[in-house]
Write a structure and sequence with these properties.
single chain; about 280 residues; mainly alpha; 2 domains; two-stranded antiparallel ribbon; globular
Length: about 280
Amino acid sequence: MAIYVFMNLGTFAVILCMRRNGQMVETIEDLAGLSKTRPALALALGIFMFSMAGIPPLAGFISKLYVFMAAIDAGLYTLAVIGVVTSVVGAFYYLRIVKLMYFDEPTGAFDQPIGIEMRGVLIYMAIYVFMNLGTFAVILCMRRDGQMVEAIEDLAGLSKTRPALALALGIFMFSMAGIPPLAGFFSKLYVFLAAIDAGLYPLAVIGVVTSVVGAYYYVRIVKLMYFDEPTGIFDQPIGGEMRTVLIVTAAFILFFFVMPGPLLTSAEVAAAALFAG
C-alpha cells in the first residue's frame, strides 16, 4: 500500500507539471517525445511506469511480489493467477507510455516553471514517510514471546499495557486521518491546494471524500487501543534505536505546525532542482 501511494503520488506530480500556456494537458498522447522536451520529467515518469509495470528491481515489483505471496500463502491460488495475468496486461499499458515518451516525436513543449503543485506533493511525501516510519516502528515493537503480532485486533487495550506505544501510534493514526494541527493535516491540505491551483477540482473533491472515509479506519484503531480490553501483554524491552525512531517521528508529526518553514522551503528548492527543464 505504501509503495502504491508513492508511485501514484509521483505520477500525479508529473501530471501537475504537464502544462502548456498555463493550461493542464492530461491525455496520454501529450506525453509523446517528453524525453526530448523535459528529460527530467520523462526520467521520473519512466521510473514510475516501470515500477507500476512490476519491472525488477523497482519497488513496484516488490509490492506485487508480496501481494502474490500473501495470496498463495492464504491458499487463494486462483486470485494469485488472476493477479499475475492482470499485472502482465497492465504492464503493456505502462510500457506504452514509456515508448511514447522516448520513441515518438513531441507534440509540443511544456511550460518550464514548477509552482505550488510540486511543492505540495513533495511536502506530502516527506510527512508520509515520517508517519509510516513511526507506524512501522510501533508494529516492530508488537511482540509476544518473541514473535511478531500484526493483526489490528492485537492492538486492543494497548493504552493499558503499553501506554507510551499507544500514545505514539495514536499520534500517527490521528495524523494519517488528517486531524489538525498534526502534520498529516497539512500534508493533505497542501496536496488539495495543489489540485485546486491546477484546476483539478473533481480530483480535490475526491481526495477530500476518500480522506474522510479513510479517517474512520485510523480512528477505529485509536478506539481499539483506548476503549477495548487488552487481548494480551506485549514483550517489554524496546531497543534504543527503535525508541529513538519513535520519539523523533512522533515529535515531528506533533510539532510540525510550530515551525513548518524549513520543510516548505526545502520542498520548493527540491521541486525546482528535480524538475527544471
